Amino acid sequence: MKVAVAKYPIGEPGDFDAFASKQDAFLREAKRRGAQLAVLPEYLSLELAAMFEPATRGDLHASLAAIQPLRGVWLALFADLARELDLHINAGSFLLDGGHGRYRNRSDLFAPDGGRLWQDKLRLTGFEMKTGVIASGDALKVFEVDGVRAGISVCYDSEFPLPVRAQCEAGARLLLVPSCTDTEAGATRVRVGCLARALENRMFVAQAVTAGVAPWSPALDVNTGEAALIAPMDVGLPHDGILAQTHGDEAWAVAELDFEALDASRAQAQVANDRDWTAQYFPTVLRARLERAVDHTQGGAAARA
What is the pLDDT of residue 301? Predict the structure, then answer.
């Protein structure tokens, strides 16, 4: 499967048509490069807030409320593009009103046959908790994508091993990570999480990122990181885990993911974290104990006396 991950430049669309035209051109480029699956970044829907007056787009609560009426045309846009381009599209994330003024960070996955699936973000960052209006998801899913079982792990979720391990045990061989980070430290944390999840589970990881600056938005103000396609670090696979990565102004990183080679790597593995995962659970290491040093010198002297 050829997969494209976006380093998506945040812009300032004047209306929904401008946003839609950008998605059309952007995804056509991924298709032109042979992609069967394209991954867009977290918080993509907040770019829509640029079309509102400064008082609305400059206030996160107001901008979240303002974009809700656009949910229908958002879904229609990406469904149409998936069908027209014969392309699976992970449309980043849309902060969706779940009732009572609480929004879930929902990542939609569109199929060329008109199907749509989604994964809500499970773990909230400090920024998201401080908003007081973003709620965590409560279900973990895996999906079939063109014959490959895949899971979605939205940004911070990729830093937690157990949910991704559960997706792996449900058959996921590919993890989609739409992300958005505003500091170099944040970008490093998500990248380390992606590398670790690939290593632990012998899976491919596809990470998309936001790029550029948007001073008009309290959430998309500064954006860092590079998009990448990641593999386990083992025989027959890249030693650093990086199959492809954006650089500079590149908008897409694209790579062919060879799932047969991934399976074959297990037979000649230098290490097999995925196979040895359950070895962590033997009784004597389920809980660490505090060990105190004993001065055997004094005890030995007393025994000799």
Answer: 53
